[in-house]
Amino acid sequence: MAFLTSLVFVVLAEMGDKTQLLAMAFAAKYRWQTVLWGIFVATLVNHLLAVVVGSYLTEFIPLQYVQIAAAASFILFGLWTIRGDELSGEDKSCRYNPFWTVVIAFFLAEMGDKTQLATVALAAQFNHALPVWLGTTTGMMIADGLGIMVGCVMGQRIPERVVKWCAAMIFYLFGLFGLYQSLPEQFLSWPAIAGCIGVLVILTYLAARMEKKVEPPCCMRESSGR
Q1: Transmembrane region positions (predicted)?
Q2: Structural domains of the chain, count
């Protein structure tokens, strides 16, 4: 259960994420095998740090509180997905050794990214580091592999907003269901539920108003101009 849940959540979190865009950019410039291996190494290290942090949380904080925080974080991931990401300087190392360029760029891009935070939350929720680590790593490889395979061919045909909104809605469902399971019964009255949904609608509207348009990284622009 921990493995499959982690896999699904990270695949959803990666859809339209800056690291998936980074995979498309590097695939346009380097061999796809090099890009995949670089992503794999960077993700293994980055998500290992995340599951260690998440696993030790339950030693200091009661499990119920951790589960509530994890469920709430999934709703935040949905809002984050709608708002979108911006590529900053992660793609500027295009001129260096391909493998290490990909490893370093992906490791830095994942620091503090929603997929890393999702890994921390999942490790805290399930309290099983190994299946969460393997699940999130596999999810990253699937999502970024899809980005490599179809990004350059179909990137102009698949509306980015459709992908992001579908992923965000699934995050909402899992987050709300997790809160329903974890919160004490006195907080689960119909007025409280209706109020929670109302606040979520307002936050979704605000996130959509702040939605960021992401420009293709430099490697993709250079490749397309060849």
Answers
A1: 35-58, 65-82, 132-155, 162-181, 187-208
A2: 1
Q: What is the DSSP string of 154-216?
A: HTTTS-HHHHHHHHHHHHHHHHHHHHHHHS-GGG--HHHHHHHHHHHHHHHHHHHHTPPPPPP
Instruction: Specify if 224 maps to a domain.
Output: no
Query: What are the tens digits of pLDDT across the range 95-147?
Result: 557 888 888 888 877 776 778 778 888 887 777 778 889 998 999 899 888 87
Range of the domain at 193: 2-219
Residue 225 located in a structural domain: no
Token pair of 18 as six digits: 């800056």
Cite the DSSP H helix spans in the chain. Answer: 2-14, 18-29, 32-57, 63-83, 98-110, 114-126, 129-154, 160-182, 190-209, 218-224
Q: Using one digit for the tens of pLDDT, what is the confidence trace for 146-169?
A: 877 765 554 455 566 776 787 788
